[in-house]
Amino acid sequence: MYRSHTCGELRETHINTKVTLSGWVQKTRDKGFVVWVDLRDRYGITQLVFDEDRTSSKLLEQARHLGREFVVQVTGEVIERSSKNPNLATGDIEVLVDEVIILNESKTPPFTIENETDGGEDLRMKYRYLDIRRNPVKNNLIFRSKVSMEVRKYLSDQNFIEVETPYLIKSTPEGARDFVVPSRMNEGQFYALPQSPQTFKQLLMVGGMDKYFQIVKCFRDEDLRADRQPEFTQIDCEMAFVEQEDILDAFEGLTKHLLKEIKGVKISAFPRITYDDAMRIYGNDKPDIRFGMEFGELNAVAQHKDFGVFNSAELVVGIAVPGAASYTRKELDALVNWVKRPQVGANGMVYAKYNEDGSFKSTVDKFYDQEDLAKWAEATQAKPGDLICVLSGDANKTRAQLSALRMELAERLGLRNADEFAPLWVIDFPLLELDEETGNYHAMHHPFTSPKPGQLELLETDPGAVRANAYDLVLNGNEIGGGSIRIHDRDVQSTMFKHLGFTPEEAQAQFGFLMDAFQYGAPPHGGIAFGLDRLVSILGGQETIRDFIAFPKNNSGRDVMIDAPAAIDQEQLRELSLKIDIKA
Ligand code: ASP
Q1: Which residue's alpha carbon is at the smallest distance from atom 1 of ligand 1?
Q2: Which secondary structure element, helix H or strand E, spans residue 408, and what is its range?
Q3: Sign of the alpha-carbon dihedral angle for 386, 391, 392, 398
Q4: What pLDDT is stored for residue 513 in this prediction?
Q5: Ligand 1 pocket check: which of 231, 238, 445 to mutate, most ligand atoms within 8 Å of Cβ?
Q6: Where does L-aspartate bind (predicted)?
Q7: In this predicted model, what pLDDT tens digit does every residue of 191-208 receive, in sequence order?
Q8: Do 24 and 40 meet the contact criterion of CB atoms below 8 Å apart?
């Protein structure tokens, strides 16, 4: 028996009992005649004491030679500590050791295994198994497990069935490149790893499963923007005989359950906003509504006043930044430079201080009098003491820039409170999105999303105007889930493929299996998928998903611990009938 108790278990009530513990040596303190050792396992830390008087000098010598991260088994008696440590769950006691067995030695770890470590990100990734021994990482993994368990509990209580779907499949377009896997037995042919189980979950509905879910890995080969992973986890769901309302209802339930069980937060309101309104009011399809700073459009009050920049703009739009009228000239210049950074891309910024005394002072006083600026204040809902920031130009670009500024200022002003949870449904997404480069339309959600009833004809005349039964669940400015009501009719699905630029042959070759299935009594159906990594990190009050993934990849998609991806040998290539031809 390696242990009678864990290192987090012993309390005052155990005093005078004989115990055996196993764990890692976190640290030793040598006072000459007595040595203390902190022994750690997943459950906590217990202080061990080796005492020349009470045990033996041989034992003391042994204790002195225990290195950091040695794995040891000790037996001894639980005694009361003379100086108690209220910060440690086991702080009332210590174990007076009478036997030590070294189960395994350890090289000196490359960084300290403590809450605050001296190890940089790269080093910690390379030795992730050591990083996982640290409380912050360990606790995140335990937290994630708790969230997954609650998801399973809730959904199975609601009659969802967890079904596994295959990883070696054919392309499921979700807007990224596929990772592909060569098939040895089918020379020259490849599987694609699923970008999501989309087509399979729809086939499960045709198969009559009625309510499906799966906590599942998805794979997308995309350029890794900040905080994305090439493989990530979804809570994937699908339901038959449902309308949009049924899905929103079911997943409000799941979100409420998680917030209550995990955070002890009760949420009753799940406001809804259309995609068009979200873009107009927040410049963003995943608005953070924990704070205001709603956009005020200023075309009507700021154009035709001799200020050429505004007159030639498609959109003039501003926000009121609470309490920022007191910003110094230096701070304001820095803000203007911030919006001009290439990442944001504005040409400049006009601002107006709404002073406490009710007067205005702007960078464009030459063109706008106090009365004009009062109209700006009205449109942006500014109050005395606020700063009105105004951007202008191409409507879409300007909205995106102002949205970036809104988020940045909210962050700086401490308005993005991690303990506050503000969910929001964004509904009525466009069905199609124009690719500016190619001039082609592609599916905004995915090609299986159904247009709003009665809008099929509009596909011919004004494709960009067609709205979809598609929805996103947004939490604190992050998209945590997205889904849609699906097409379940073969003809509609092939019309959709046609509009996405597939020839009938291409559509049949790639998605014939799905369209064929639709001919055998496909029920109306729809679903949603939540990004589990992101959801867990938001619930955990942190921003990076990597911190909640046991073995994440770095920004170049590499696992630096196992050193993947890696070349494969000639023999393996030959078996797969592959030749490598790296372009210089
Ligand atoms: N497959 C979709 C996605 O990964 C989710 C859905 O439509 O249910 O975003």
Answers
A1: 198
A2: helix 395-412
A3: negative
A4: 95
A5: 445
A6: 174, 220, 445, 486
A7: 999 999 999 999 999 999
A8: yes
Q: Which atom of ligand 1 is nearest to the CA of 197?
A: 1
pLDDT digits (tens, 9 = 90+) for 415-453: 999 889 999 999 999 999 998 888 889 999 999 999 999
- Supply the pLDDT for residue 423: 97
Measure the CA–CA gap between 200 and 190, rounded to whole angstroms. 18
The pLDDT tens digits of the residues spanning 460-507 come to 899 999 999 999 999 999 999 999 999 999 999 999 999 999 999 999
Q: Return the residue whose CA atom lies nearest to atom 4 of ligand 1.
A: 196
For each of the domains in the chain, give its residue range(s) and CATH number, in order of start.
12-104 (2.40.50.140), 146-162+194-272+422-549 (3.30.930.10), 291-413 (3.30.1360.30)
CB of residue 387 inside a 6 A radius of ligand 1: no
Q: Is the pLDDT of residue 314 over 90?
A: yes
Each residue's pLDDT tens digit, 83-128:
999 999 999 999 999 999 999 999 999 999 999 999 999 999 999 9
Any atom of ligand 1 within 6 Å of the Cβ of 198: yes
Helix ranges (DSSP H) in 127-261: 128-131, 135-157, 198-206, 244-258
Q: Is 267 helix (H, G, I), strand (E, B) or coil?
A: coil
List the residue whose alpha carbon is closest to atom 8 of ligand 1. Answer: 528
Which residue CA neighbors atom 6 of ligand 1 most closely? 483
Which residues does residue 71 pair with via DSSP β-bridges, in sequence order?
A: 24, 104
Q: Is 447 in the pocket of ligand 1 (CB under 6 A)?
A: no
Confirm if 488 and 525 have CB atoms less than 8 A apart: yes
Mode of pairing for the β-strands spanning 478-485 and 180-182? unpaired
DSSP 523: P
**pLDDT (tens digit per residue) in 214-254:** 999 999 998 877 789 999 999 999 999 999 999 999 999 99
Chain-centroid distance of CA 59 in Å reads 50
Angle at 452 between CA 159 and CA 535, to 5 degrees: 45
Query: What are the tens digits of pLDDT across the range 268-297?
Result: 889 999 999 999 999 999 999 999 999 999
Please give the number of the atom of ligand 1 that sits closest to the Cα of 234: 4
- What Cα–Cα distance (Å) separates residue 485 from each residue in 210, 240, 429, 430, 497? 14, 10, 12, 13, 17
Give the chain's count of helices (H) and strands (E): 17, 22
CA 455 – CA 431 distance, rounded (Å): 10
Name 85's Cβ contacts closer than 8 Å, sequence gap at least 6: 47, 91
The per-residue pLDDT for 172 is 77
